[in-house]
Each structure stands twice: as structure tokens, then as C-alpha cells.
Amino acid sequence: MRYSAWKIFKEGLTGNKGWTPAWREPEPKAEYDIVIVGGGGHGLSTAYYLAKEFGEKNVAVVEKGWLGSGNIGRNTTIIRSNYLLEGNQPFYEFSLKLWEGLEQDFNYNAMVSQRGILNLIHSDPQRDAFVRRGNAMRLSGADAEILGPAEIRKMCPFLDYDNARFPIQGAIWQPRGGTVRHDAVAWGYARGADARGVDIIQNCEVTGFLMENGTCTGVETAKGTIRAKKVAVCVAGSSSRVMEKAGMRLPIESHVLQAFVSEGLKPVIPGVITFGAGHFYVSQSDKGGLVFGGDIDGYNTYAQRGNLPVVEDVCEGGMAIMPMIGRARLLRMWGGVMDMSMDGSPFIDKTHIEGLYFNGGWCYGGFKATPASGYCYAHLLATDRPHDTAQHYRLDRFRRGAPIDEKGQGAQPNLH
């Protein structure tokens, strides 16, 4: 079924009786060409691009829970490509370009809203750093502007410009950044992959890997054994636990990253705003709630919940730049389990085990990377060669002395 305004109008006149399920609920087959472990945004986008771009139809996605139960439904919905380093910037710009055509591509309303992202500047050295970042963005074809206080006042008159401790001296502005409805991304990719023949199997936890003469030949699941020519793992915060079943130890820590939403308010936040002297980022949803977050919790855990000290820290960051937020009531909060790599950058690579592939270590960048991650992972699985924009995301980069240490990212092992 193709969705359109005419289809909505027609179904409204006929009692909405013609809608069909967005995807099937198949039982797993005994064997597939490719089995993708993890039914989140990255797993579903990988399946979609495998089928659409590379003609791989004999593919299954196995998910231990329901679609969207992991980080794809537990983030703050921000998309951007304002990175600095050569290993990251082209990749995230590729992702942003995919976001821009995503709804038309998979015929689903993901509510892509390019309202812009404003990273505030509070000191002279920070201005120098952001100018450098803006130049790197422009070199990769992205958009970036350095704004002064007067220009920011026109956009956000409610910010605290006279704060003696954190004066707002400017900002780096990416107009093409913005937000997307996170769970709709999972649904759109699932629907698109299913329509192209991919089997999406929910409530099917992977309990082990089939190994024959050092080669991965399938997975053991809660619904039985599934054989495969290639097994692709992308399970975010559960990466270490799942890959341990294959005898692998990853350079990844799992941390909770909390997110919050306030009561519904009248429109006030024009796009996305980030605090440059701490870790606080905020946007406003279409329902009026302020959606915001900050730092990871300071301990390792696999629980999808956070703690009160981080709530206090995040709210303090918000109060430092926009004191009016102190009058808003917190409606709800949630936690996603982040797979934090040691340099803050991800992995999309073959493992040393033949037939076993890994995608993970996304830290704070997982959601915004969803389209490019899926596309590049699909490229790797179909061709056994890394995509041009993901060639730096190798598992052996620490051994080679080639980390991609993007500032402000990573698990900061010195603190844990």
C-alpha cells in the first residue's frame, strides 16, 4: 500500500477499513543469506538498504523485544552533521543528506523537521574551536555559519545573555540540522524492508552463535536455530553482551543516557539549542513539550533508567542559558543504554570471525547516523568492502594507533 493524502481522504470516507498492517509477522525460516541481529533503527535501515540498493531479499531481522523498544525510541530526536574530524564529518553529512530525502524514499511520514541547530559559544577559545569546526563542515559540503550575539537575540530573545559566568558570545549555526520523529523512523524502515521481502521477527532473542571451523554460520534464538551465510550484529548498548557469545571482547562501555520532556508549552524554541559550557541540548516537539538531555550517567549499566544526580545536572545546564525553563514541569524521563566506544566514534566492520560483522559504538551519535549507518553497513555486507564514508570505522583502529577522537565524545575512561 502506498500512503498519500488521497489515501487518507479515501479511507476517511469508507470507514478506514482498507488499511493493511505496516509489516508482516513471519515465522523464521531455517536459513537466510543474511541475518541482522537487532531490530532498532540501524538494523532496520540496514535491511531496507540491503533490499533496495543491493537486491538482497533473503534477509531476516531478529529482535529480542518489539521494534523500537531500544535506543531508536529513547533519544532526543536530533539530526545534524556538525562534526570536525575527517573520519566523522563526511559520514554524518552523508547521513543528513539521506535524512533530507528519507520520507519520500520510504513513503512514510517521519516528521523530518530541519529547523536548525544552534551551538552556543561562551568564550574566545571556544569561538576559535567552532570556527575551525565550521570550516571543516564547509569542506565536506555541509552548511555552517558563525553568528554574533545580536543575530542570536533575534532568534532566541529568551536566552540569558548577561550571565556573568556563561556569557553568550556567539554560536555556530547549522540551518539544515533539526529533529525527526524517532519511532516513526523505525516504523518507516520496517515497512519498507518488509515490502521488499525482508522477514522481521520480533520477540526472538539471540542466545548464541553457530560456529563451524572458525566461521559463523548462523544464530541460536528463542525461536530455534537460524542458519545464515552472514550474521550482522547491531544491538547498541547490548553490543558487549551479544558479541561475548561469539568470544569477542569489544572496546566499548555501556552507559545510560537520560532524556526528558516537559509539559506542553506554547512554541518558543525555534530549533535545537545546545549549551557550550556544559552538556545540555533542547528542542521543542510538535506537541509543545521541551525535549532535552545532557551527559551520560557516571557508571556502567544495562538498565534503561537513570538517576537523580544527572537530572539535577541537566536541569542546571538548562537554567544557565534559559532561566525560564525553571518554571516548566518535568512530564517524564527515560534512559537509553549507550554503547560508548573509547574514542567516541563507531565501528562498521567485519570481525576476525569469518561471516560475522559488527556495527556499534555509536555513543551520542546513533540516532542522527541511522540512515548512513544502515546504508554503509548494507554496503559492507553486500560487497565485503567498507563504504567510502565509513572506511575509518574499523575495529582495529586502536591497535593501529588511529583513533577518531572527536572532542566531547566517548566514555571518558579516565572518569570511570
Describe the structure.
This protein is an alpha/beta fold and 416 residues long. Helices cover 27% and strands 26% of the residues. It has ten helices and 18 strands. It has helices spanning 5-13, 41-54, 89-100, 102-106, 124-139, 149-155, 182-195, 239-244, 308-321, 370-383; strands at residues 31-37, 59-62, 78-79, 117-121, 145-147, 170-174, 178-179, 199-201, 206-212, 215-221, 224-233, 252-264, 272-274, 281-284, 289-300, 330-341, 347-350, 356-360. The strands form three sheets. Strands 1, 2, 8, 9, 10, 11, 17 and 18 form an eight-stranded mixed β-sheet that branches. An eight-stranded mixed β-sheet has the order 5-6-4-13-14-15-12-16.
Q: State the end-to-end distance.
A: 50 Å
Detail the poorly predicted runs. none
Tell me, what's the shape? globular
- What letter string, H or E per element, gives the SSE order? HEHEEHHEHEHEEHEEEEHEEEEHEEEH
Over the alpha carbons, how many angstroms does the gyration radius reach? 21 Å
Percent range for β-strand residues: 25-35%
Q: What is the typical, i.e. mean, pLDDT?
A: 94
Based on helices, strands and strand pairing, what is the structural class?
Answer: alpha/beta
Task: Note the total helix count.
Answer: 10
Helix content range? 25-40%
Describe the main β-sheet briefly: 8 strands, mixed
Task: Tell how many strands the DSSP assignment holds.
Answer: 18
What keywords describe this structure?
8-stranded mixed beta sheet; alpha/beta; 416 residues
Protein topology:
Blueprint: H1 5-13, E1 31-37, H2 41-54, E2 59-62, E3 78-79, H3 89-100, H4 102-106, E4 117-121, H5 124-139, E5 145-147, H6 149-155, E6 170-174, E7 178-179, H7 182-195, E8 199-201, E9 206-212, E10 215-221, E11 224-233, H8 239-244, E12 252-264, E13 272-274, E14 281-284, E15 289-300, H9 308-321, E16 330-341, E17 347-350, E18 356-360, H10 370-383
Parallel strand pairs: 1-2, 1-11, 2-8, 4-13, 11-18
Antiparallel strand pairs: 3-7, 4-6, 5-6, 9-10, 10-11, 12-15, 12-16, 13-14, 14-15, 17-18
Helix pairs in contact: 2-7, 2-10, 3-10
